[in-house]
Amino acid sequence: MFDSGATVAAALAAGGADLSDAQRQPNGVDLTVGAIFEQAEPGAIRRDGKRVGEREELAPEDGAYRLEPGTYVVRYGEPVRIPDERIGFVLPRSTLLRNSCTLDTAVWDAGYEGVGEGRLDVGHAIAIEPGARIAQLVLAAADHDGTYEGEYQGEGL
Ligand SMILES: O=c1ccn([C@H]2C[C@H](O)[C@@H](COP(=O)(O)OP(=O)(O)OP(=O)(O)O)O2)c(=O)[nH]1
């Protein structure tokens, strides 16, 4: 069972997010663009650890990120807090898909708190304003064993 948009909004507000009315959707909450990066060097995924490669933050031009086709990393604009007994999923806004772009996202664990990131895949040139809504977070009821305690806990807060 998925939570209503109002319940998701309440969870984010409890974690410090300042949501506009436009972000409050029937089934979830829209997340905005906080920053966009281009990766500049290899990262690593090892059997016993991981490392995120250095990246360069892009600067908006005339009020928008003007993105050519390629792969970027987006940092969302809101702190997210996944309550106990919930799992989070972030999906792209359909307008991104309709413009030949998408987001690739992973599981948002119960107990995670932070300003998360995702892969922004640009299939056709697009202009995206900082602060524009780009994705939607939904929360579903879920059993879980413990809560998130990884190194991304508290990122960006
Ligand atoms: O698209 C996503 C999905 C998740 N997260 C946040 C919430 C999640 O709880 C946390 C860690 O995600 P995950 O467990 O997939 O990362 P990992 O690479 O396995 O790191 P760790 O070893 O810390 O679990 O990152 C994001 O920022 N973006």
UniProtKB/TrEMBL annotation:
Q: Does the keyword Hydrolase apply?
A: yes
Could you identify this protein by its name? Deoxyuridine 5'-triphosphate nucleotidohydrolase
Q: Which UniProt keywords apply?
A: Hydrolase, Nucleotide metabolism
Q: Which organism is it from?
A: Halorubrum kocurii JCM 14978
Q: Which GO terms describe its biological process?
A: dUTP biosynthetic process
Q: Which is a Pfam family this sequence falls into?
A: DCD
Cross-referenced SUPFAM superfamilies: dUTPase-like
Q: Which GO terms describe its molecular function?
A: dCTP deaminase activity
Q: What CDD domains does this protein map onto? A: trimeric_dUTPase
Give the NCBIfam families listed for this entry: PRK02253.1
| Keyword Hydrolase among UniProt keywords | yes
